[in-house]
């Protein structure tokens, strides 16, 4: 790739726009959003179903683009839950029910459904008591829906649930319900992305149609229009979500460039499509799926252009080398995302994708061919080839996931570490451009050093997280030197583990219970446990830690805000303690059960119900 692509104004404008969104944008309902009708006991709204429904047992869930509420014009999107009614994409529906805020618990490092919907500009849910279609979708959309249903039904009717789910996931991104162990195998093997309709699927459909048209002897222009039409239909059938739309736009750019005999402009197409998505949906910049899709596509474009195999190599060897480079570049560019979001890195992902990516293309091609023959009652011709491909795909996924080190847990990286990593990766991807690499190398190394230095200097002396889940609380304390403490057992271990990962560590140094009756089986989360009234008594300092931490009698707060201590030892579960940390700014204490923090100046910071409060000291 020529270095001049990095001088394009659109690239720099897009980068500036993304930075502005990251620092200044926060998803919020508009003035006419359906969110503002929450106070009404029951509403009747009209809206357009904005996607294919998701089945959950006897409930059908779908996003509905709101047009009016109780006869008044409104906008926004509501997440609707239907019972005994199947919402269809692009139908206009009349829905009656009660609006409510999405359920959400903002627990550090854990999934928050309310926040997930907010990033999609959905701030309201409705549990429908009655629903009806008032305007069907246009004929073309209804045809698209029937085509999607027919493809998925052909798999469901022919194969066992697990294989049918794989077929639906690989072809249309509709994987269905998997057993937890199989879903975990897809994650650990690094193949979970193959169950989501992505830009690679759009490209595959385009190439297949071009291949077929070339045998039919069509001209270049007709071939391109046929390929674009087929890819467009596939994009709609697969759901037309952001990665697919962006890939289709890039395909259009590539085809137009080919027809004009010029550079395909795929890089420019990626920038334009990304810009368009963020203009209409700014919150997408915070979505993990958008980040992964954009970064992976960008990495593949740059890497395959800069590290292209020699033209003298055999085609079969070039094919596998390109798969290796695409997989490697994707793994490298997504490493910070995997660590900061999933807290897991697939070690076998590079090897597994070398095999599974080509096999997924075979499954996709066989799947569509089988569906077409199935509609003609001739599916038996391809039944066993597709069955074998699906069985092999599942077996290989389980094989790559079976290794003890297939996936390693990982704590999240700091912002400076992420910035330094991407600066180094940018230099690595452009090393083949020797003159350009020599020019940018000093700037990249200087930026990496600066980012890491700023991260360390800007780190406060202590960060405290007060975690609350339905009035059960715990706290995490992270000191500047890296020492980490977990206080209290109010939050379950399986939820405290991602909280620790989010703070940047895999294990705490010390677990500090608030009472003698606490659950002490925390070996997975902390190296040491200090037991109150056994290892240490109130008034004494905690041993074997590099900072001064003093155990005191339990600090509590009355309703009017007055603090009091639960002094005295009775030998029962009523006895509790608190912990005070000495730093350069003075002594600050975390109250019993981690309900509040008392600063050195005497002010109190309280935890919040179902929320995480972050305090810098």
Structure commentary:
The protein is an alpha+beta fold and 617 residues long. The model has no long low-confidence stretch (mean pLDDT 85). Among the domains are: 34-137, OB fold (Dihydrolipoamide Acetyltransferase, E2P), CATH 2.40.50; 139-190 and 348-408, no CATH class; 415-458; 462-616. The strands form 4 sheets. Strands 14-13-12-11-10-21 form a 6-stranded mixed sheet, with helices on one face. Strands 16-15-17-18-19-20 form a 6-stranded antiparallel sheet, with no helix packed on it. It is built from 16 helices and 21 strands.
Brief digest:
With about 625 residues, the chain is of the alpha+beta class. The protein has helices at about 10-25, 115-120, 140-160, 160-170, 180-190, 200-215, 220-235, 240-260, 265-280, 290-305, 315-340, 350-375, 380-400, 415-430, 435-460, 495-505, and strands at about 45-50, 55, 60-70, 70-75, 75-85, 90-100, 120-135, 345, 405-410, 460-470, 470-480, 485, 510, 525-530, 550-555, 565, 575-585, 585-590, 595-600, 605, 610-615. A six-stranded mixed β-sheet has the order 14-13-12-11-10-21, covered by helices on one side.
